[in-house]
# Entry
Amino acid sequence: MKRMIALGFEGSANKIGVGIVTLDGAILSNPRHTYITPPGHGFLPRETAQHHLQHILPLIKSALKTAQITPDEIDCLCYTKGPGMGAPLQVAAVVVRILSQLWKKPIVAVNHCVAHIEMGRVVTGANDPVVLYVSGGNTQVIAYSEGRYRIFGETIDIAVGNCLDRFARVLTLSNDPSPGYNIEQLAKKGVNFVELPYVVKGMDVSFSGILSYMEATAPEKLKNNECTPADLCYSLQETVFAMLVEITERAMAHCDKKDVLIVGGVGCNERLQEMMRTMCSERGGNLFATDDRYCIDNGAMIAYTGLLAYAHGEMTPLEESTFTQRFRTDDVQAVWREDKNSSNMNGKEEGEIQCQ
Amino acid sequence: MDSAISETVDDKTLASQWEFSCDLEVDYESEENASMVYAALAVDKELQPDKVRRKMSVADGKLSVHFEAVEARFLRASFSAFVDVLTLATKTIEEFGPGMEL
# Structure
């Protein structure tokens, strides 16, 4: 039987990535390029789109070369429909529409959040976990129920990664490789805990007030030598991660699930993983997490999720291959998981779904 | 690929409804390529249809685009963004079309 192969494009934020995967989750290639801004600055839609414009075509060549495949062998072309920044999303969408016509291949539109979840599941082998999806643009606690990934808790304002990124700008930390990584390294040197607002509202969290508090008080505190930048990084991490662990635990109790999967860019933070692992073990469950190759936005996660949908008969006509800044995780009917529930009873794994 | 840009700003709105307009023509010398770019770019509608309008057509291997806007700045923004993705679409055909090399 011929293996099914998908080519996937991700460009919803400051990373542009092209990945090639097979249906059993094997990643044949997954190159990406990150738009890194100077310290103290964030990335803006126009400039980010320009970055993607410059790198997308060489990335496709590199992906095909590394995977050692030709366009003929590809079954479908997948792209991020949303959520994300409009102009950067458009870059991947336009290229996919052209390639689809050139190579006569079907298009599959993919939800970015769902792609993170599926990538995390296939890489870690987590079967039916509560998912904490934490990145620069999203913060959600998700669990699968009746055909969809349902959001049990989320941020009511900015994402946790956005809070960390913007705090890094207050300290003018480097954005290379990412602001979050540099906060994490600096936090290891922190000794004094600085009390910060702790904002959990039921199943939800809020980070904008914490960020405002940091922006308003940090410069003064540092000037008066009340604490060090490392203390602030440490205190911010401890506070926001504790909030995330709390709402994740609440969702676990609610859904009666024991395992947790962390996905998204903030998910490669080892301190967050450590705190979550402690909570999981206390509840008799396991933590599943991945490293920066899969946590951070990449093309393979889009390719894999698109291929799951394609193998279950889903396709996006060219005229409908739009992109959208807002696209909720629970808008997607996860058709590939409906099969899984029945095949589960036969003890089958997802990678074994047979296709003609 | 040859392209021609003609910008006209006419207060006497005869043909066009809105004050600011601009035309772009790209000669692909191929009906197939021009239609491919047309199909790829027609999917994305203008974000502010009450301020900017875009009309595209393909004939004789050429892609023609007509822009109309209520203010010059909307015309410029829309035109500039469009040229970026048009260039991307064209480059994609050049690099991944028939006879592509890796």
In short: The domain at 20-95 of chain B is CATH 3.30.310.50 (TATA-Binding Protein). The beta strands of chain B are 2-9, 20-27, 52-59, 62-69. Residues 10-14 of chain B have pLDDT under 50 and may be disordered. The helical segments of chain B are 31-42, 72-96.
